């Protein structure tokens, strides 16, 4: 058993050493829709100077080559003859038909319609993955051109065989019009959202407010001015009957101001009731006293 | 005597240390196809047992132990190494496996190139399998193994895998992945590989036919996956492996290049760790909110308040079998939503406090029932979701500013009226014009 596997590995190694694969007579041409040849390049396989082509929406790319053994130049048909298209980490794989003599021909029509959509993902349009689950039974894996952006597509050739050692050859680069981008990761962080707040309320200049406040106060000037022409005496101003009533009235005004600034309704009613009783008593006394003065009773 | 005790204590502590296991339980059911020998997978199974898992083996057609008893999963994890089995005992059906996953049980599934109930289950999870009988083939790189035994470099950037893992020997089928965001690809096929059923160079035309219109398609290139996880919405994890040989001892011991052992053993262990919810397992411990300069949460907030939202996130540490505060997430986002998010902002970790994530923001000037929503979904990680409802109300009648400069004339008017009333009362009560009236009366007389 062991000797058999040893022999096998020897055989494999021998096969590997026997010949590796390469291509010859490689030529790539780009022709427009009316069959005029736009560019034609001989494939040199020199990694330093890869031809770069450009493929318009209505152009056709034609690639011909012959797969040969590296030494001997005999044409062979390998198991794997794949063109690999690569751009921005996305790839597409397209097998090429090779005759038993090793001759191969490949044609690629320019992206008339969006190649990224049509070729790469047969069910790309069904973004909703639950829907896609239903379609899975008829789903096919992606093929051919990857979704492209502005960077050119690198085209390389993969040759693999059971009899020869494999080879990966860079052929050329081709610029194609940008296609629909590959679907983004749905679990990536989402863009930030900020709330647009209503603008701050506009307030007129304080100067204008001050002027109008002054206008409101102006009647006082008139009142005091006219009053000064009257000779009106207040003999009972400091009478103990009047002061308590007047100050409780003033306290009422103060309570209302306090209510406006800070107090709650219940507190106002409580304080107001207490103050009201005081005002009632002081008012009765003050009015009684005033009545006495008016009728001329000498009391104070 | 003393020494023996010491050694015993050491062994005991080591045993406790190495007795690290999954966050969901340690019982594992291994359903092993009779054609596979337990001894061929000893490295993988021994590794699990050393970690503290209790393995129970059974053949697919055995009746006991059942994977679901009376509607409740009997095991915390299930391994199905049955790539070729077509008939199972009554309790193993695709539906029962889905039930397991919805009960937060984790499953490792090995697929094969034959059409089995498992392959039809895989397509329910958005895996697109190649036609039966087409294994993955690669002629690259040149090597002495058959074309179906392929060394695959581990290039996944998933944090579930340690970087710098040696290439993994693989033999099995590839699968294309649908657009399902819950899929977590771990190991992709090499760019040069493809699925084919031919073993001769003359099969080349079949490959071209398959890729052409009307063919079944060509499974080729690096977009194909060979090991892919799937995390359900409820948190259960399932791992699809295209070939059971990935876990066996032969591949684990096989050298990739001279002197370098393959990464199979470690890759298999890390894949099991992910599937059995040891790695990349997170949870939200709590979340809280309060106004700036306060500490207690309010039962409602006013528009334009500045509020602080804080959450604590823990990560499961299988080495200590404990949840530990975790500050390593840099892309958590907080949404403040009423039907739609009104605010979406980053929720960054607080540098000095492990596991704490906090953000301060201004409540929008829209009133209604809002929600603080943290919805963290990243490939491979446990999905985190937290939602706290809080009403936002407009300011109360007494919460508006009292003195606006624009209203000065009104304030002045009201105050001057009050002052006028008091002044009038004083004049009327304290004034006395009796002398003047007397004088007038005298004149009249």
TrEMBL record, chain A:
The chain crosses the membrane at residues 207-230, 242-261, 267-287. Its main location: endoplasmic reticulum. It comes from the Eukaryota. The keyword NAD does not apply. InterPro entries: Ribophorin_II_C, Swp1. One of its GO terms (biological process) is protein N-linked glycosylation. The keyword Transport does not apply. Keywords: Endoplasmic reticulum, Membrane, Signal, Transmembrane, Transmembrane helix. It is a multi-pass membrane protein. It holds the Pfam family Ribophorin_II_C. GO terms for cellular component: oligosaccharyltransferase complex. It is found in: Endoplasmic reticulum membrane. Residues 1-18 form the signal peptide. Residues 197-292 form the Ribophorin II C-terminal domain. This is Ribophorin II C-terminal domain-containing protein. It comes from Heliocybe sulcata.
UniProtKB/TrEMBL annotation, chain B:
Belongs to the DDOST 48 kDa subunit family. One of its GO terms (biological process) is protein N-linked glycosylation via asparagine. GO terms for molecular function: transferase activity. It is a single-pass type I membrane protein. Residues 28-275 form the OST48 N-terminal domain. Pathway: Protein modification; protein glycosylation. Its main location: endoplasmic reticulum. The keyword Transferase applies. Component of the oligosaccharyltransferase (OST) complex. Residues 1-20 form the signal peptide. Keywords: Endoplasmic reticulum, Membrane, Signal, Transferase, Transmembrane, Transmembrane helix. GO terms for cellular component: oligosaccharyltransferase complex. Subunit of the oligosaccharyl transferase (OST) complex that catalyzes the initial transfer of a defined glycan (Glc(3)Man(9)GlcNAc(2) in eukaryotes) from the lipid carrier dolichol-pyrophosphate to an asparagine residue within an Asn-X-Ser/Thr consensus motif in nascent polypeptide chains, the first step in protein N-glycosylation. N-glycosylation occurs cotranslationally and the complex associates with the Sec61 complex at the channel-forming translocon complex that mediates protein translocation across the endoplasmic reticulum (ER). It comes from Heliocybe sulcata. This is Dolichyl-diphosphooligosaccharide--protein glycosyltransferase subunit WBP1. The keyword Manganese does not apply. The chain crosses the membrane at residues 408-430. It is found in: Endoplasmic reticulum membrane; Membrane. Residues 289-430 form the OST48 middle domain. InterPro entries: DDOST_48_kDa_subunit (IPR005013), OST48_MD (IPR055459), OST48_N (IPR055457).
């Amino acid at each position: 058993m062991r000797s058999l596997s040893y022999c096998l590995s020897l055989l494999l190694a021998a096969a590997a050493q026997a010949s590796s694969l390469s291509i010859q007579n490689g030529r790539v041409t780009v022709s427009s829709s009316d069959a005029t040849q736009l560019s034609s390049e001989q494939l040199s396989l020199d990694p330093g100077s890869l031809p770069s082509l450009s493929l318009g929406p209505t152009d056709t790319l034609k690639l011909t080559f012959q797969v040969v053994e590296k030494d001997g130049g005999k044409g062979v048909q390998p198991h794997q003859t794949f063109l690999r298209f690569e751009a921005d980490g996305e790839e597409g794989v397209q097998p090429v038909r090779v005759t038993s003599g090793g001759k191969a021909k490949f044609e690629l029509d320019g992206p008339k319609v969006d190649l990224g959509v049509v070729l790469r993902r047969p069910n790309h349009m069904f973004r909703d993955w639950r829907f896609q689950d239903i379609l899975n039974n008829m789903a096919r894996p992606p093929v051919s051109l990857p979704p492209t952006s502005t960077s050119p597509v690198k085209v390389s050739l993969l040759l693999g065989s059971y009899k020869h050692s494999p080879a990966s050859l860079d052929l050329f680069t081709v610029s194609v019009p940008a296609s629909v981008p590959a679907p983004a990761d749905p679990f990536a962080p989402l863009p930030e959202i900020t709330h647009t707040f209503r603008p701050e309320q506009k307030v007129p200049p304080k100067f204008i407010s001050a002027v109008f406040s002054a206008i409101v106060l102006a009647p006082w000037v008139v009142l005091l001015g006219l009053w000064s022409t009257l000779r009106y005496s207040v003999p009972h101003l400091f009478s103990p009957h009047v002061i308590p009533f007047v100050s409780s009235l003033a306290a009422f005004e103060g309570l209302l101001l306090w209510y406006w600034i800070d107090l709650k309704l219940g507190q106002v009613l409580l304080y107001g009731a207490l103050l009201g009783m005081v005002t009632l008593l002081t008012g009765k006394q003050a009015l009684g006293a005033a009545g006495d003065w008016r009728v001329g009773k000498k009391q104070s | 005597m003393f020494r023996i005790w010491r050694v015993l204590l050491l062994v005991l502590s080591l045993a406790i240390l190495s007795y690290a296991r999954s966050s969901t339980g340690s019982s594992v059911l291994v359903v092993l196809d009779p054609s596979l020998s337990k001894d061929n997978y000893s490295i993988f199974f021994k590794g699990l047992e050393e970690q503290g898992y209790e393995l129970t083996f059974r053949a697919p057609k055995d009746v006991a132990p059942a994977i679901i008893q009376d509607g409740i999963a009997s095991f915390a994890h299930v391994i199905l190494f049955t790539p070729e089995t077509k008939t199972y005992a009554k309790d193993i059906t695709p539906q029962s496996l889905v039930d397991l996953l919805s009960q937060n049980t984790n499953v490792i599934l090995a697929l094969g190139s034959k059409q089995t109930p498992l392959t039809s289950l895989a397509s329910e999870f958005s895996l697109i399998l190649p036609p039966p009988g087409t294994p993955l083939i690669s002629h690259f790189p040149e090597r002495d193994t058959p074309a179906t035994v392929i060394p695959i470099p581990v290039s996944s950037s998933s944090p579930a895998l340690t970087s710098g893992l040696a290439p993994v020997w693989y033999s099995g089928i590839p699968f294309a992945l649908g657009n399902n965001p819950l899929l977590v690809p771990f190991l992709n096929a090499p760019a040069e590989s493809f699925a084919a059923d031919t073993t001769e160079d003359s099969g080349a035309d079949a490959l071209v036919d398959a890729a052409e219109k009307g063919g079944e398609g060509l499974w080729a290139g690096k977009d194909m996956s060979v090991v892919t996880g799937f995390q359900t919405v409820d948190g259960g994890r399932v791992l699809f492996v295209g070939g059971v040989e990935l876990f066996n001892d032969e591949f684990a011991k096989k050298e990739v290049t001279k002197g370098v052992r393959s990464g199979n053993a470690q890759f298999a262990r890390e894949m099991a760790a992910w599937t059995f919810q040891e790695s990349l397992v997170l949870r939200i411990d709590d979340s809280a909110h309060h106004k700036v300069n306060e500490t207690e949460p309010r039962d409602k907030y006013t528009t334009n308040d500045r509020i602080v939202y804080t959450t604590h996130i823990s990560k499961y540490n299988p080495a200590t079998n404990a949840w530990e505060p975790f500050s390593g997430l840099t892309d958590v986002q907080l949404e403040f939503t009423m039907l739609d998010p009104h605010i979406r902002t980053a929720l960054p970790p607080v540098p000095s406090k492990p596991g704490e994530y906090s953000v301060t923001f201004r409540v929008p000037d829209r009133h209604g029932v809002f929600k603080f929503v943290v919805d963290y979904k990243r490939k491979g990680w446990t999905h985190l979701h937290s939602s706290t409802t809080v009403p936002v109300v407009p300011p109360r009648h007494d919460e508006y500013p009292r003195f606006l400069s624009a209203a000065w004339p009104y304030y002045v008017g009201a105050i001057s009226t009050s002052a006028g009333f008091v002044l009038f009362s004083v004049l009327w009560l304290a004034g006395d014009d009796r002398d003047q009236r007397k004088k007038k009366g005298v004149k009249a007389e």
